[in-house]
Prior knowledge:
Layout: H1 2-23, E1 26-30, H2 38-49, E2 54-60, H3 62-71, H4 76-85, H5 108-114, E3 126-133, E4 138-142, H6 148-154, E5 164-166, E6 169-172, E7 191-195, H7 211-232, E8 236-238, H8 254-273
Amino acid sequence: MEQQKLYTAFLLEQMNDSNSLKSNKIGLVLSGGGVRGMAHIGVIKAMMEFDLEAAVVAGSSVGALVGALYANETPIMDMLRFFKETPLFKYNFLSIGKAGFLDTDRYEDIFKAYFPHNTFEDLKKQLYVVATNLEKGEELCINTGELIKPLLASAALPPVFSPVNYKGSLYADGGIMNNFPLEPIKDKVDYIIGSNVSIVSELNKKNLTNSIQLTGRVTGLMIYAINRDKIKSCDLVIEPKSLEHIGILDRKGIEKAYAIGYESASKQFEKLLS
């Protein structure tokens, strides 16, 4: 008898979760994480297949870029094309007289092809983007006015990309201060889906044999520790552990990260909505 009650309670809880996901206003938070952020596109693809749509989106770094494409209702294949065709290392993009190896401003024309109106107000969904003010040591959350400069700033990972001059100050990657920007949307929606690609899984000693691997691991642990409570506070979290084996600048991992995100999200949505 007691087991039957527990099972009934479990079914009711599942039904409530399903109803919440289907009928309430959904918010989507997209973390930073370089190429691993292609998993966000896979999550969005799965959301579409399960007839789920976010009304409000917040993103940092690559999450800001994917979030902007989603808020602009860019087709999935065009989202992937954006990242595949945008050059990462190109000789005439090399920075001269600026901090950083690549001149971030050189990417502005590429972005204009996808965001010709260049304003937050012209997006189809409400979007919040986080960037880091390097001079003041503060994060800035942007959701109005010019779009492309904040996007470039949010994704300007030091020291690869040069800081972006926005409204008289130098800005860089949003993930420096806030890699999982839950704050701007948590009081604006009823149900929050978090897609976190800055994950931490168990590593073998063989993956910690040089300074680069060690630095990457320590940085990843710090970022995850800072954002862990926010990630866990989401109603649904998608963070595939296998993403850690894809390098944050490894363009060959674009399709793999996308597939991992899609598969992980599909399984969770199917379990929740079945």
